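Q: Please design a sequence for this.
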């Protein structure tokens, strides 16, 4: 009975949140024809893009702050529970294969750990100290960045983690789908993705989840661009570790440096699968070891390394 009373009080307190309100467009959701049901979702799903666009300034500030810390050796952590946490884990997991980043550089921390990816453990989100404890277990420190993701902005697990980040001087970025005045969060940068009430009341895996995924996609990709892992619009900081990536790597070498397939395979072998290094060897006519040292001296920035050699790759 005591647990029910606590939950009821929390429920009543959260009822004012934008993400918990009833959407007037879907009051007859269960009575719609299937085509009308689907069309309603299609129309509502235009809102996440608008919400992300409205938050572009805050997202840009976060990108610059995160990139600066990562360049100095810091790391990026996503922290969340339920859908929010799973989206953070997904984005973190996609960084190494996309950008050849160290798996330690971007990490997703989910309330309940790995089992919560497949089985709901939302009860753990009510433990404020758990967020800090999970970060401490990963050695989270002042040089690092934390993106605390909480659609409704009230998750104690995330609040605790953000507060800890602020206390130790780490970069604290909050991401929520309610206005700041409804659910203030301790942070340095406040990203609010205001997607409005869900068609299925309170189900933030819908519009709120879509907006969060979009924002995380933009944020992590833009950070990696700033770290020099992209040349033009190509993923040059990728390792040719399987047939799909070998094929993509060869296309990049062909399109940017005019390298044909056989020569490209040789270059990739000399570069230990690194497309960025293979491009530098081919375009600047350097020996592999010299190209490695040149790239290192320019902090992994291919464009800067090429410019130092008077080389300008074609971009198509």
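A: Design:
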């Amino acid at each position: 009975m005591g647990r029910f009373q606590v939950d009821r009080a929390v429920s009543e307190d959260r009822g004012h949140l934008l993400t918990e309100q009833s959407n007037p467009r879907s009051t007859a959701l269960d009575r719609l024809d299937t085509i009308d049901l689907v069309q309603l979702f299609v129309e509502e799903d235009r809102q996440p893009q608008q919400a992300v666009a409205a938050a572009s300034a805050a997202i840009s500030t976060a990108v610059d702050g995160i990139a600066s810390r990562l360049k100095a050796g810091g790391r990026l952590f996503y922290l969340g529970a339920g859908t929010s946490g799973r989206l953070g884990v997904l984005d973190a997991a996609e960084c190494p294969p996309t950008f050849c980043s160290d798996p330690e550089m971007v990490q997703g921390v989910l309330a309940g750990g790995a089992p919560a990816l497949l089985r709901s453990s939302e009860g753990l989100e009510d433990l404020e100290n758990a967020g800090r404890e999970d970060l401490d277990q990963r050695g989270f420190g002042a040089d690092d960045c934390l993106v605390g993701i909480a659609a409704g902005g009230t998750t104690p697990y995330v609040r605790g983690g953000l507060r800890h980040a602020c206390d130790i001087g780490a970069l604290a970025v909050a991401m929520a789908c309610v206005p700041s005045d409804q659910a203030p969060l301790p942070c340095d940068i406040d990203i609010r993705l205001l997607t409005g009430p869900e068609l299925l009341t309170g189900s933030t895996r819908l519009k709120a989840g879509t907006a969060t995924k979009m924002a995380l996609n933009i944020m992590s990709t833009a950070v990696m661009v700033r770290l020099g892992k992209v040349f033009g619009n190509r993923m040059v900081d990728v390792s040719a570790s399987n047939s799909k990536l070998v094929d993509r790597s060869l296309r990049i070498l062909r399109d940017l440096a005019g390298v044909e397939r056989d020569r490209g395979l040789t270059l990739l072998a000399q570069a230990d699968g690194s497309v960025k290094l293979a491009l530098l060897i081919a375009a600047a006519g350097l020996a592999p070891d010299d190209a490695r040292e040149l790239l290192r001296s320019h902090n992994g920035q291919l464009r800067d390394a090429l410019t130092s050699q008077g080389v300008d790759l074609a971009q198509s």
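Q: Thanks. Anything notable?
A: The beta strands are 76-80, 106-110, 145-149, 171-176, 189-192. DSSP finds 13 helices and five strands in the chain.
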